[in-house]
Amino acid sequence: MTQANFLRNPFPEAKELPSGLPEGPARFFNRELSWLSFNWRVLDEARNARVPLLERLRFVSISAANLDEFYTVRVAGLRELVREGNTSPSDDGLTAAEQLSLIDADARRLMSAQQGVWNRLRREMEEQGIMILSRSNITRAEEEFLRKHFEDNVLPVLSPLAIDPAHPFPFIPNAGFSLALELARETGGLQMQALLPIPAQLQRFIPLPGGQRFLRLEDLLLMHLSSLFPGYRDTGHCAFRVLRDSDLEVEEEAEDLVREFETALKRRRRGSVIRLKITRGAPDRLRRLIMEELEVDSDEVVEVAGLLGMADLGQLVLDSRRDLLWPSFNPRVPERVRDHHGDMFAAIRQKDMLLHHPYETFDMVVRFLQQAARDPNVLAIKQTLYRTSRDSPIVEALCEAAEAGKSVTALVELKARFDEAANIRQSRRLERAGAHVVYGFVQYKTHAKISTVVRREGDTLVTYTHYGTGNYHPITARIYTDLSLFTCDAALGRDATKVFNYLSGYVQPEGLENLSISPIDLKENLLALIAREAEYARLGRPAAIWAKMNSIIETDVIEALYAASNAGVKISLVIRGICGIRPGIKGLSENIRVKSIIGRYLEHSRIVCFGNGHGLPSKKARVFFSSADWMVRNLSRRVETLVECRNETVKAQITSQIMAANMADEAQSWILQPDGRFVRYLPDGRDDLFNCHRFFMENPSLSGRGTAGARDVPALTHSAD
């Protein structure tokens, strides 16, 4: 079945699997293999001729960085289970050892494919005048430039190390990149092994005069070995790169959470090696030395015939070559904010305001807090911080507010993976400014995205609230699709206040009006909503569920969706990454369809719409957005929010525009098959395929005062009202 037919007939005849109806573990796809499948889709964008050349290079870099993180966290965890002798199966029936075997085979194929794609892109780049040179291609003038660059910018930060009993093998940190050398003295023939760790702060690709010819850093070092090891010549060398276990363990009874995390970060840096990548053809003695010193087995070694550290290819996405990048796009300022001359509070007072990032600028979130910091009528600000930028304007606004004497409370999540150190720095900065900094729960991550501003207006206090699906991170907000709801609705303000009291004082919230939170009631309420939609279907009423998120793997939720499908609910899911659902199987999931959208922007918003007995899209639908994916960690081990939208304009914007466009997308969509394959349809010569990213970029009428209406989106065959 092609994707085009699938879109015209969203719920085709279900398939019967040769083995019959899946039972038990066979009802679910494996989480780790599903994640690898997602990264294959990311890499496939680098093959997509519709994508500009340097953007395709960026996709290679992203796929490599993704794979590194996958190994340092997920594979590291599986290896720990194997070391402990744990043979318990996952939900899909595979033990940790079985998963590792399948992961290793697929990941090696993926790494080989990455090299193949890079080689093709490199040739295309050469046709566009962008050259990655070998040492033999350097001109005399470039040699002189490189000599000076090496002496001024590289040599001062290098530490060449001889390896002998007096100079033991050094520690190589996670993602550490090094050259290993066999050297012989020019006179006398004395042999020596040496190591040259390459600091991560050095640029991997050195631009030569003109800006479009580059030399790899490792080649520059090999050109100047005589400056590093005078009197020796190179008799053999290789490059290698190390990935280490990067998961954190924190004591639940830690009295000083910040200090405990600082200690844990040091342990992470010294985690056991999970994977060693080494250039193919490395001298045997060097290879054995590296494996022995890093304590890795042969199955943890990957020999690379090509480029090590492919995540660094992002450095070659040149801003100077706009002709090889996506056309520039400036996010829109909402019309209502412009009408009120930039006054966020006045715009929000008029009515609830939903922004769809990155099409509508995240600067409105920053402006909201900056205005709050400077407004003499604002008394208090409360803010969750999970991930944010290094020089965060949001943290700056919170500090400004605290220094101005306002009551500022910041919930800083120290357990945000790979951002722990940055969040420790931000928390100390906030404390110095006079803010109240809290860290939530030791056993739960706080992943909810909430901000409240309490403002005196006449004789009353009004709470302005921001709920979001994405992090308070101005940089990632340029490429992540997320939702922001600004409201001064009193009920939503009361709900937010109760959540903050829960985070700061462990007071479990009662009487939430428009909000569900995990780990308390979000999962329970979600399951009830799914069951209610199934009951509508049994009564013969139009029943539908639309949901969009990053991942779905929680088995209770999947089983509830299977039950709803069997009751006749039409279920359409947009799942970017991990998906444990088997769609389109007769007797199990014949009314479930799943697609994954991979394109210019990273789909990050979490949305769920219930037809409420009227089908979708519908004015009577129940519409929610959330900070949570449908995974065990989000529903059971994190503080997350599920916010119901009651404003009719906001509901219409979500169902008739955002979700309808995602459902209708053809150009960027992959359709999940019952056997786990994702199928794509990109025929040559077809430039009219509906692209939801382009649709939102090209339709300014979608922002501002209200909704443009479902007429702007290709009709969906299963809509009803």
UniProtKB/TrEMBL annotation:
Obligatory cofactor(s): Mg(2+)
- In this chain the Polyphosphate kinase middle domain maps to 142-316
Can you tell me which residues bind ATP? N66, Y480, R576, H604
Pfam family of this protein, just one?
Answer: PP_kinase
Entry annotated with the keyword Kinase: yes
User: Which keywords does this chain's UniProt record carry?
Assistant: ATP-binding, Kinase, Magnesium, Metal-binding, Nucleotide-binding, Phosphoprotein, Transferase
Q: Give binding positions for Mg(2+).
A: R387, R417
Q: Domain Polyphosphate kinase N-terminal, which positions?
A: 28-132
GO biological process terms on file: polyphosphate biosynthetic process
* Boundaries of every Polyphosphate kinase C-terminal domain copy: 343-508, 515-681
The post-translation modification note in this UniProt entry reads: An intermediate of this reaction is the autophosphorylated ppk in which a phosphate is covalently linked to a histidine residue through a N-P bond.
Q: Has UniProt tagged this entry with the keyword Transferase?
A: yes
InterPro entries according to UniProt: PP_kinase, PP_kinase_C_1, PP_kinase_middle, PP_kinase_middle_dom_sf, PPK_C_dom2, PPK_N_dom, PPK_N_dom_sf
Residues of the active site are H447 (phosphohistidine intermediate)
Reactions this protein catalyses: [phosphate](n) + ATP = [phosphate](n+1) + ADP
EC code(s) of this entry: 2.7.4.1
**GO CC, alphabetical:** polyphosphate kinase complex
Q: Name one GO molecular function term.
A: polyphosphate kinase activity
Q: Which family does it belong to?
A: Belongs to the polyphosphate kinase 1 (PPK1) family.
Entry function: Catalyzes the reversible transfer of the terminal phosphate of ATP to form a long-chain polyphosphate (polyP).
Q: What is this protein called?
A: Polyphosphate kinase
User: Which source organism?
Assistant: Paracoccus onubensis
